[in-house]
Each structure stands twice: as structure tokens, then as C-alpha cells.
Amino acid sequence: MIPAIIIWLCKKYLAPKSYKKFSPQSPVNPKSVATVLFLICSLSSAFAQQSKFNIKRNGEIIGQMYFQQKDEGENTYLTITSKVQTRFVFKINIETEDQAHFRNGRLLTSNVNRVVNGSAKEVKKTNWVNNIYQLKTGNKTSTLNQPISYNMMLLYTKEPVDIAEIYSDNFQCFIPIQKNGAHQYRIKLPDGNYNDYHFENGLCKLVVVNHSLYTIRMERV
């Protein structure tokens, strides 16, 4: 797995287009004040944060990953996109887009999309329906009867303090989290590989992807 070997994008710029000067004698319009307060509250309720990671192999940048978290009231939307170009025995181009929707701390839906050398892989979906998770990979379906409050995508925005296991949207199962040191965690994947996550001030700063054939570093910039 090139787990979130990858991830996200979408930088939004919000800036006023014009400025109007008021003299000290200018009366304050109550309607204008109310409008400004409404806009501030609206922006606060739809807060979005973005981050970018350089993906490196042997010290060379081979791609970027972009992460975005958007909070709207009780809803949290996560998006990770990435693009990687590298060469092992032959040239490899990988594009990913992962999405997740949480409400009040519970995962409602997630999608894992991969395109390798122009070929789309089976989409992996996790959906909360009738108090149970329905898991789908291509035409294969299964169920999971266990609440999901923390998944692999949240690793990029929230340190897993006192969390024993994490849900993998890609493998569609729970995986134990091993603490390796201060703000350092290791996740051993079902395919035999493992990832090391390093945090600073609660945010992920570095991910080291340890595969049997290669090692990749994802560095926050």
C-alpha cells in the first residue's frame, strides 16, 4: 500500500476585493454591522484547513500529497489527493483521491480511489447504513458492526493519543497502533509493510512508508 502515500489539495484564497474608508464622523450602520457579524459567524462555522506533503524517494521529490479538512457544524469532511511519478523496474504514475465524512465524531462515508498508470483500481467504499457499516470493493460487499471514530485520514490532522486501533479505509478493517516514542507511532499493515508517523504540536509532520521494496518519506511543507 502506498497509504496515504499521498493526499490533497485545494487552496482557497479569501480576501476582500475593495476597502471603503470611513471618517470618524461617519455614522455606523447597524445593518452593516449585523451583516459583518453574520459573515464572520458563517466563515467560522465552515472552517477549512489545508496542508501539503512532499513525497520523497532516495532524497528526490517524486510527488505531492494534499490534505484538506473542512468543518461545518457537526460535520467534518476530509479529502486527500496525491500524484506520484517514479520508476522502479518501469515507470509508475499513481494518482489518488480519498474522501471521508464524519458527523459528531462518527464516520458516515469514505471512498478510496486509485489510478495506476492510467488504469483505475476498484473503488473501496465504507458507508454507515441502518446502524451498520456496509463495505464495498468493486462488486464484493461485506459488513462491519463496530463504530468508527478514527481512520487513517485523521492521522494527518490529529495525533492518535490514547487510541489503540485505527480504521483503514483501504484495507477496510481495524489495525493496531503501536507507540514508538514521544509523538511517534507505527502502524503495521495487513500486507506485511508498516508506516511510521511523527507528530509535532498535534499535527503530522512526517510519514515514513516502509515497504519491502522501497522506503518513502512524506514531509509536511
Write the layout of secondary structure elements.
Blueprint: E1 7-8, H1 30-45, E2 46-57, E3 60-72, E4 75-87, E5 91-103, E6 106-116, E7 119-120, E8 124-129, E9 132-137, E10 140-144, E11 165-168, E12 173-176, E13 178-181, E14 184-188, E15 194-200, E16 203-210, E17 215-220
Parallel strand pairs: 1-3
Antiparallel strand pairs: 2-3, 2-17, 3-4, 4-5, 5-6, 6-7, 6-8, 8-9, 9-10, 11-12, 13-14, 14-15, 15-16, 16-17
Strand content: over 45%
Query: What class, by secondary structure content?
Result: mainly beta
| Series of secondary-structure elements, N-terminal to C-terminal | EHEEEEEEEEEEEEEEEE
The largest pleated sheet is described as: 15 strands, mixed
Q: Give the tally of β-strands.
A: 17
Give the proportion of residues in helices: under 10%
What oligomeric arrangement do these chains adopt? single chain
Overall form: globular
Radius of gyration: 21 Å
Question: What count of structural domains?
Answer: 1
Low-confidence sequence ranges? 1-24, 33-45
Distance from N terminus to C terminus (CA atoms, Å) equals 23 Å
Tally of separate helices: 1
Mean pLDDT, all residues? 85
Description:
The strands form two sheets. The protein has a 15-stranded mixed β-sheet that branches. Strands 11-12 form a two-stranded antiparallel sheet. The protein is built from one helix and 17 strands.
